[in-house]
Amino acid sequence: MNIAILDSGVGGQSILAGLKKVASQHHYTYFADHKNFPYSTKSVQELQKIAEENVSQLIAEGAELIVIACNTLTVAALDQLRKTFPTIPFIGTVPPVKKAADTLPPSAKIIVVSTKHTAKSQYLKNLIQQHSKGQQFISIGTTQLVKAVENNDSDQAQHILKELFAPYSKQRVSAVIIGCTHFSFVKQEIRNCFPYPIQIFDSVEGITKQLQRITKNESIIQTGLSPSFCCS
Fold this sequence. Notes:
The protein has 232 residues and is an alpha/beta fold. It folds into two domains: 2-93, Rossmann fold (3-Layer(aba) Sandwich), CATH 3.40.50; 97-201, Rossmann fold (3-Layer(aba) Sandwich), CATH 3.40.50.1860. 45% of the residues lie in helices and 16% in strands. The strands form two sheets. The protein has a four-stranded parallel beta sheet, with helices on both faces.
């Protein structure tokens, strides 16, 4: 299958690496939309227009499944993309709030670090409300960290992270949820901001599982079996 991965820059490379580990049989195309970087400074309407244009190009180039490897673009445009291109399977990227809530006890304090666009979105608020089992979720948004990672500026990234987490470093934080694919590249730097061990949750595992589900169903349909057969 021809799979396209769309992001504003290098962030989705973490998704690409995860997909290749479990599904190397597919052909992957990576689209880094440097022209419109960063996505987090744009309005929903702008992001939807950008997404439609990029997806149209990817489909014209042969994409059969598209991974939106960006939390901001997923929140702003995924629903519209699925309506506009109903024959193309899409996999979005969302902060793994459910995974963290299912894993950690109700007493846990969990930080979600994402772009400002995602942090203030109703989508993230709804996600937390839907899946929280009593845990305290703290949402932090930053655009500067996205730029630092994109520019491979590790010193600046560490400086930004220390400032972001300074108010919480002496509190008993259980986990940090990665809410922007760029931030997957600074996991160790995030851990270094806390004087005690924390768990980190990112979206790679969920995306790889979703790809496996979709491609398994596609193969079952092509052989003439009922899609429900895979779940029996």
